Amino acid sequence: MTPNELAKAREQIDGLDEQIQSLISQRARVAQNVAHIKQRMGDTGDHYRPSREVEVLRRAMERNSGPLTDESIARLMREIMSACLSLESPLTISYLGPEGTYTQAAVLKHFGDSVKARPTAAIDEIFRDVESGAADYGVVPVENSIGGVVSHTLDALAHTKLRICGEVTLPIHHHLLSKDADLSKITKVYSHAQSFAQCRKWLDARLPKADRETVASNAAAAQLAQDQGAGVAAIASLQAGQLYELNILASNIEDDPSNTTRFLVIGKQDPTPTGEDITSIVLSAHRNQPGALFKLLQPFADAKLDLTRIESRPMKGSPVNDYFFFVDFVGHTSNELVKKALDDVRSNAAFFKILGSYPLAVM
């Protein structure tokens, strides 16, 4: 490439940047106008609409002709929508803190950077924040592809009045972080219990003699590694390492490279159908009835509804044989076939509750 060709290419980029910026500003003004129209129509509710957001992202990915990946296009569109929404009133999102956790990363992936992220010390506090109005939405981890379900989240879902409004899937890559620069000097490792489970083989092989101490979150582990210094390490994200100024002793130490955590978005609204939706319910069977669980699930088979997850959890304060069953299936409660199946399930259940119908995660 000659200097003239390079200068011409840069001039093209400058011109395109000007057009992009102008179109983004135009989009923001239209978004503000939409808000004003809604106010005149008497719609003073939440300006964030999960179904609408997902539809915009799906269309953006369908239009994508490269060279950027669908994920990159979706991330760019998410940030544009997030910035436009913040012109009305920035959303407050409660998450499991402190700053630097994977749950915070899930918040940013789903809502973009133009939100007020509110860290809490425990999953129960996230539910209380949203129930009380201190936060518009909450993001909670529900299951990991290696470590399994997050029991605190399932227990809270069984008793809350909140609804599941969306889901986020986040690839999880763990890193060993420390103020030390020498792996051989590490004598103690802090981490969340789930992360220890996800990195067990690596730790057994590389740090078999190091003490492992469980803490409330990976970011809390990174804080401890920063505070305690030499000989102490944490399993956490790259973001946490940067935030707490720690060295990376080893990267991607998870036992399974496809390690993924699923998060749920909890709030007070019921998203409208998008055509690609998940419904979550929790139920229990009548005790001492042979085949009770089979009878509960039979309506799903009759309606040809695809079950994507079934988990059991003991009921708190009940005999050991009493369980909640958490069920996810493809479909939305607005569909007549789904309604009939759920009515049939409800009629056979000792306890029945719809947790939400919400859009399938975009990416």
TrEMBL record:
It is found in: Cytoplasm. Residues 281-359 form the ACT domain. Its EC number is 4.2.1.51, 5.4.99.5. One of its GO terms (molecular function) is chorismate mutase activity. Pfam families: ACT, CM_2, PDT. CDD domains: ACT_CM-PDT, PBP2_PDT_1. Gene3D superfamilies: 3.30.70.260, Chorismate mutase, Periplasmic binding protein-like II. It comes from the Bacteria. Residues 6-33 form a coiled coil. The record marks 261 as: Essential for prephenate dehydratase activity. Pathway: Amino-acid biosynthesis; L-phenylalanine biosynthesis; phenylpyruvate from prephenate: step 1/1; Metabolic intermediate biosynthesis; prephenate biosynthesis; prephenate from chorismate: step 1/1. Its main location: cytoplasm. SUPFAM superfamilies: ACT-like, Chorismate mutase II, Periplasmic binding protein-like II. Catalyzes the Claisen rearrangement of chorismate to prephenate and the decarboxylation/dehydration of prephenate to phenylpyruvate. This is Bifunctional chorismate mutase/prephenate dehydratase.
